[in-house]
Amino acid sequence: MNRPRIGLSQRYVLRDTKARFPSVLSFEWNETGWAEGVYEAGGLPYYLPATENGDTIDELLDILDGVILVGGSDIDPSAYHQERIPECYKSVLIRDRFEIELINRVMKSGKPLLGACRGMQILNVALGGTLHQHIYNLPEKIIDHENTPLKDFTRLHPVEIEPESKLASILGGNKFEVNTSHHQAIDRLGDKLKACAWTEDSIIEGIELDGDEFVIGVQWHPESMLDSQVSKRIFRAFVEKCSRK
């Protein structure tokens, strides 16, 4: 039996000799939960290095059956035609450009695509959507969506999922508790995307592409709640969709 090959994007740390812990080279890394979740669901994880070379991205996709876009730094607002506000955190342009090009090529290939947190946001941006750069600047009352001070992902909030959505079908219901670690959120939806999950303050927590393709984004972190049925079902459904014929 051939396990489906799952590409995982990575966090990107820029060279910075003035940092508290200086890095003389840029480096990429990932949370181990992503590989663990893919392994447990029956897939083989492949870490994807950022590149702006389209031919190289095509070569990577040739050996993959699906792609997961993970969390990380804020997307540069220029990618969705906005000026940066003070509350927008540091961005990594090479990662932004790589993932937008990767998304475009995955979409053309028809292969499954899953985005989490920043991964959902970059999917929306790649398809022409925009973001709220800092949700706490919105006039509406916003619940606490950021991580705990210990960064342990123990803060949870409920999400309500559109009953007729693909995400609800995967999860087997329409109300769940999920973790949270973000200060940005989707504003205008990208082309052919529809919202399918929300928190009580109307922040979008899930999106999916119209049609039969598996293109889904969630605002929470499945890799940080691997023991939950929510995460197990998402990983299992994605890997099964990527299964090689």
Give an overview of the whole structure:
It is a single chain. The chain has 245 residues and is an alpha/beta fold. The radius of gyration is 17 Å and the shape is globular. The chain has helices spanning 32-40, 54-62, 93-109, 118-126, 166-171, 229-242; strands at 5-8, 11-13, 27-29, 44-47, 66-69, 113-116, 131-132, 156-161, 175-179, 185-186, 193-198, 204-209, 215-218. α3 packs across α4 (118-126). The protein contains six helices and 13 strands. The strands form three sheets. The protein has a nine-stranded mixed sheet, with helices on both faces. Strands 2-3 form a two-stranded antiparallel ribbon. It has a two-stranded antiparallel ribbon with strand order 7-10. It has a single domain, classed as Class I glutamine amidotransferase (GATase) domain (Rossmann fold, 3-Layer(aba) Sandwich). The relative contact order is 0.17.
User: How helix-rich are the residues, as a percent range?
Assistant: 25-40%
Number of domains: 1
CATH architecture heading: 3-Layer(aba) Sandwich
Number of helices: 6
